[in-house]
Amino acid sequence: MDSRDVTSDRFQPEITVAAPGRINLIGEHTDYNMGFVFPAAIDRRIEFRIRRNGSEQDCHVYSVEFDKLLSFKLSEVRPSQEEWENYILGVVHEIQKLGHTLHGFDCQLESNLPIGAGISSSAAMECGLAFALNSLFNLGLSKMEIILLSLRAEHNFVGTQCGIMDQFASVMGQPNQAILLDCRNITHEMIPLNLQPYSLLLLNTNVSHSLASSEYNTRRSECEQGVEILSTSGMNVESLRDVSEEDLVAHQNILPPVIFRRCLYVVRENQRVLLAANALKKENIEYFGELLYQSHEGLQHEYEVSCKELDFLVDFSRKTPHVLGARMMGGGFGGCTINLVHQDHLKSYIDQVSAEYKQEFGIELDPILIRPSSGTFLESDFTSS
To answer: 0.85 cut: is pTM over it?
Structure first.
């Protein structure tokens, strides 16, 4: 194999783009309810090595991790049976729908993002490719256009009706900053993350229960049902963002119990996000940690998207004085917990919790130390033209 082969380790790109995953400090399942979220880009990324190949139609995308090659023509972009391919195809489709002209390209993907860990490898895939194609073909897309077309790709080709948080964080992140994002009007504020002497530790359960994708869309539907019922009662409500906890409790009698619990979680979680941002502004790390625990309790008992492995890790952390807070992160039913752990006790805590988890479930636990980092960026530019 030579440098002309997209599967070769000697492949020579014109440009290289790095797109990060993201954590969400707090504010889970609030984005599609027009609420607040609090994500940050992280120092784990997908790298896109890309070049024009001289053809008008032929595109080749090679995943180093999966050792799989996707080949397609720009005039024949349609959904695939392979989920990872749909992130690629969806982005190409959405760019062409906007009226932009693409030409044949070759792209190598290489990632150190754990798949299924709830740190948005999907958004990194979408935003990274959109950013790379924008740079390679001088399309003139703004960062917000990249975010929105990547979101549409996930909705229309992948079929996950996610909110805007993952794509926004992957593109707009900044080092040592979290993003307080208002998902109703897409305004944001950068909040410094001064967590010393604590570090953010992800613990990947290495489980992904099959309920994850179907239940995600179910939760969204349940929230929409709640809004519809409240609207018909005379309340001026467009989303759960418009509902206070007091109003919700006052209308509890007209809401089915499950719908009430879902809505109660979202209303409370929105408030927790604002309280968390304020706590970090004041460098009140202890209170921030307590809010993480409150968030997990809501996800476990009101929104019901946790699982026994996630609950075990959060419960275990409560027994340890060196951990200020922990919660499940992501859509649920597997993936990671996010933990606020004292730096001096990181190794001992990882050793201890890994051993207990292995004993309980017979599964290896993957610890992932992360730092808030830059959003999607052009890593190197070898373009001669």
So the answer is: yes
